Amino acid sequence: MKLYYKFKPRGAINGWMPGKAPVIPKGFRMCQDAFVIKEDHLYRMWFSWSDPRIIAYSESMDGVEWEYPTAVLPIVPGSEWEGNEVCRPCILYKDGRYHMWYTGKTYPSENSRATSCIGYATSDDGLNWQRHGNPVLIQEEPWEGNGVTYSHVLWDDEEERYKMWYSAEEIREAKAIGYATSKDGINWKKYECNPILSPCENHYFEAMAVSGSYVIRQDGFYYLFYTGFDKDGIPSLGLVRSKDGISAWASHPSNPICAGTDGSWDWLGIRSPSVMMDQGQVKIWYTGLDRGIRNIGLLIHDGISLAFDGKVGDERSRMPELYSSKESGEGM
User: Fold this and answer.
1) Is 292 left (phi over 0), alpha (psi -120 to 50) or beta?
2) Cβ(252)–Cβ(270) under 8 Å?
3) Partners of 177 in the β-ladder
4) Alpha carbon distance 71, 85 (integer Å)
């Protein structure tokens, strides 16, 4: 019988410096799931604005002080997959256009269960979006539970394809992370051995769920920042790395790299990282949790290397019984 030690991490470690206050202006109580890019000297943020259940947008000159947000992607009333909420944007600028993958949600009713799918939209300016119409990724496998969400997409120039890391809403009362590829950003082929990252029973901070990934490529590795949920449902940020972005993930020896801070606005936990190498620093915009409030903060580390300093934690194992055997679409 395995014994769990209830270790509750607090604050940050190894030079990470969490923000002392939210970056979104006061008065906005339910802002979360930020995705930030930088163009010249302008920081641009898309995020979930959960009160109106839409995706909003803001700008900043320093990444700390942000303008009042504006709505850029609303729900579609009556839609079977994005009629109740749109959220969790991922933005990629490619070929002169902005590409957004986002989550569309429907809420449970007397005749249906809650679902979530991943949609796709494009824009010339990042503000006015044209939806694809249908979801581009849906729940298909048993491990994906009620739906798929939290997409992060990279374009691989060498392989000439998009790579997506996504989360599932449920995995036997938990969550996990899967992987898919696409030539056009619309038609996706899921990896046959999903999920690629599952809850880790040896680490209490992520024993219940892993979710909300963000991937950086550096020095021959894929570095995956993610949210781990402990057995009490409290989230904190973890970091793993892999040579191929799919298998043999090694945990950072100091995981979790950051958790909520006692007495602060994010004391109930932090999740949903958006990561940037910027001006000699690693910057992470994250969601901080308080009771009934969600807001966006900034975590900073001096130096742009993500190296594990010659050390790695234990290699992560997956759950073989949850592997998908579905094979369709383009090859891996």
Assistant:
1) left
2) no
3) 167, 197
4) 13
Q: What distances in angstroms separate CA 67 from CA 23, 109, 121, 266, one per listed residue? A: 10, 37, 24, 21
pLDDT at 112: 72
pLDDT of 109 reads 77
Confidence of residue 114 (pLDDT cuts 50, 70, 90): confident
This prediction has a pTM of: 0.90
Q: With bands split at pLDDT 50, 70 and 90, how would you rate the model's confidence at 308?
A: confident
pLDDT at 71: 96
Q: Tell me the sheet residues that pair with 182.
A: 162, 188
Burial class (CB in 10 A: 0-12, 13-18, 19+), 302: exposed
Write phi, then psi, for 143 (nearest 5 degrees).
-70, -20
> Residue 321: pLDDT band by 50, 70, 90 thresholds?
very low
What's the CA gap between 330 and 183, in Å, rounded? 8
For residue 154, what are the β-bridge partners? 163
Q: Is 331 exposed, middle or buried (0-12, 13-18, 19+ CB in 10 A)?
A: exposed
**How much helix, strand and coil, in percent to the nearest 5, is found in the chain?**
5, 45, 50
Would you say the C-alpha torsion 328, 329, 331, 332 has a positive or negative sign?
negative
Are the beta carbons of 297 and 36 closer than 8 angstroms? Answer: no
Pick among 3.40.50.300, 2.115.10.20, 1.25.40.10, 3.40.50.1000: CATH of 17-314:
2.115.10.20
Distance CA 273, CA 95 (A): 25
Lowest mean pLDDT among 58-62, 82-86, 172-176: 172-176
